[in-house]
Amino acid sequence: MPDEVSAFTFRTWLRAGNAEEWEPGHRLLLYVDDGGNAAPQAVSWGTVDGAQSSLALSRDLASCSGHHVTAAGDVREIRGELQDRASDPLDVERAGGHEFDTETEGTAGWRPADRLRLLIDDGTELPLRRAAWRDRAGNAASVALRSPSPSGNADVTDMVTTVWASAEHRAADEVAANLVDGTHSTWFAPRNEASLEFRFPRPVVIDQYVLTSSGDAPDRDPRSWVVHGSTDGRLWRVLDSRGGESFDDRHESRPYRIYVEPRAYDRYRFDIHASNGDPHLRLQAVRFLAQSSGFTGYRHPAGHDPVAYRGGGSRRNHRPCGWAPFRRACPRSRSRTARGTWRGSGVPSRCPLPAPGRGRRARVTRPRHAPSRGRRPSPSGARSSVTAARRSRTRTVSARPGRTAERSTR
């Protein structure tokens, strides 16, 4: 295949320190198209958890080597062997990457530039925070992705203003609002089924969410749940379903990507249907990661001075099971409904997305305790309940039934 823009799939191995043995790593997908027509020579990236990776491709593009620094600071070597190469950018465009309308700044001001299509998937399911690359023609670029949060960070959990739970343990201060307060405090429910609802001040497109296990018994971790989104609290759209989930360690944070067509909601609800065996539920934290709204960076054309580079209008697309690398290892196959199957013509039994070129109508549901005439549901569970008098932190509480506990953003 000629030296041109392509989508590369590498099988990778990792080696720590001076160890002699290589351990299998995640599959790595690379696709960078900034308007040039040259294959990449080197690529580096960072994810929202702080992990960093950098690698260079061989002359024949059949292998790669580099290094990876974990979020904890551990350094590992990387090597990879080419597993697949696709030249059709339309397939990659639907593969879960970003697409931006871009501009560069010159002496005459900002001018439109070629569209940027970017896909770097290292198997962790964590969103990109930054990326840099250099192609074989000598052109280089670096971008830092932005999100709708005031800080530009992908983590928009601090924007949550209200947390509601159908069950919690108020006497021990193990309330639902603890899930977003950034501490090691936990939420405890004296049952193995419960609902959690998080409200934002304005609609936000959530790309991923992260659950953190508590330090308690693993049997109390959630095992299956369904995530919904809503703009009015009455009609809810299914965004993600999981079943058979478990955590490997205590206080472990695990990301989950939402693969349905992205839309903005100001309410997100988790219906937890089962624990891992215990009659109770416990969870330490829930975090929300937003879809990128653009990027800031620079471009350095070969033989020229670097110029400012920015982009907006990010469009995150679905992963089609029709593309060969995803047929072998489609990450969506880990998603299941509560019954463990997905319905749809021409779609693999466990894949929640439509086949390429086919639409899928949003599945809209009503809450388990459907309100009448738009009133707030009032299940028998408790609300988040630490008063400002008891604790000068962020929550306010009303003892009246049917009211939610609000978390201030002060």
What does this structure look like?
The chain is mainly beta and 410 residues long. The protein folds into 2 domains: 178 residues, no CATH class; 177 residues, Galactose-binding domain-like (Jelly Rolls). A 12-stranded antiparallel β-barrel has the order 1-3-9-8-23-22-11-10-4-5-6-7. The protein has an 8-stranded antiparallel β-sheet with strand order 24-17-16-19-14-12-26-25, with no helix packed on it.
Low-confidence stretches: 90-94, 317-410
Number of helices: 2
Binned, the helix content reads under 10%
Question: In which order are the strands of the major sheet placed?
Answer: 1-3-9-8-23-22-11-10-4-5-6-7
Number of domains: 2
The count of β-strands is 26
The first-to-last residue Cα distance is 57 Å
What structural category characterises the helix and strand content? mainly beta
What is the overall silhouette? globular
Average pLDDT taken over every residue: 77
Rounded Rg = 23 Å
H and E order: EEEEEEEHEEEEEEEEEEEEEEEEHEEE
**Percent of residues in beta strands:** 35-45%
Query: Largest sheet, described in full?
Result: 12 strands, antiparallel, barrel
Protein name: OAA-family lectin sugar binding domain-containing protein
Biased composition (Basic residues): 358-376
Biased composition (Low complexity): 377-400
Pfam family, one: SBD
